Amino acid sequence: MNTRQYVLSTYRLMLQLYPPTFRRRFAAQMLEVAEAAEPAEWPLIFGDTSVAIVRCWIEGSPSTAALAEPNAYLPVGASSLPAFGFLQGLILSTVIILALLYTGYRWPPPCPAKRPIVTEIVGPSQASLPAIAPRECVVGRSPGQ
Amino acid sequence: MSSYDISLPDMEAEDRPLSSAALHILLALAESNLHGYGIMQAVKRQSGGQYKLGPGTLYANLDRLLANGWVGESERQLKHGDTRREYHLTANGERVLRHEIRRLRQVVDVARTRLGKLDDRGV
Questions:
Q1: With bands split at pLDDT 50, 70 and 90, how would you rate the model's confidence at A81?
Q2: Which residues lie closer than 8 Å to A64 by C-beta, 6 or more apart?
Q3: How far away is chain B from the Cα of A63, in angstroms, using its nearest Cα?
Q4: What ipTM does the predicted assembly reach?
Q5: Where are the beta strands (DSSP E) in B17-102?
Q6: Of the partner residues B2, B54, B64, the one whose CB lies closest to the CB of residue A49
Q7: For residues B29 and B22, what is the distance between their CA atoms, to the nearest angstrom?
Q8: pTM
Q9: CB atoms within 10 A of CB A121
Q10: Distance CA B57, CA A46 (A)
Q11: Distance, CA of A34 to CA of A26 (rounded, Å)
């Protein structure tokens, strides 16, 4: 695959990021423009298209509004949920994910420091005590007890 | 408002000032019917290379211009059997373009007068 084909494949993938209705209407023509363009124009084409994709999602377009299908993606502006709601949702989900990651990292919790760990084998005189596995954490008990 | 919005919320579509991109596209189509890349080249040429239109901005504007009925589209059959989509200026589009040029002329007239006064004062 030469550079030109690689660039065009990348651009074709980039066009997939447009809302479906807009993409169906204009993506083929946009690809034709990229095919006709000189290599010197590629930075303009990529830069302009990436900004336009974001704007198309945020502001919507006549295509996306007129040809909206059931279950189609909606631009943020056309959703009944305000942009601030999306921001709140994003922050909340980030906090939840970070909290879960932290919990996973700290689980199972380590034995608290400065608390005795029973390592001795329990003698027959203390046989009435419940059996304790070696290295098991016992809270509030010292070897003298 | 975005740089390629061709509208303001509380005005009739035809009374709103056009964005640079929409104005350049209508001007390019006033010369001849063009396909997408042809419009990009025409805009570059007519602005003396000062204004370069990318495909994202071009098709976002064409989408709005088509929806407003200022630009129309048609399929053109090419020699080897392929088709190409071309865009043309409609009568409504021509009226909007003339209206915009009148508005810009007024702006230029005011600017000339005021800058002339500044020149007289030796600023």
A1: low
A2: A19, A21, A22, A56, A72, A74, A75, A78
A3: 7
A4: 0.80
A5: 71-77, 83-89
A6: B54
A7: 11
A8: 0.65
A9: 7
A10: 11
A11: 12
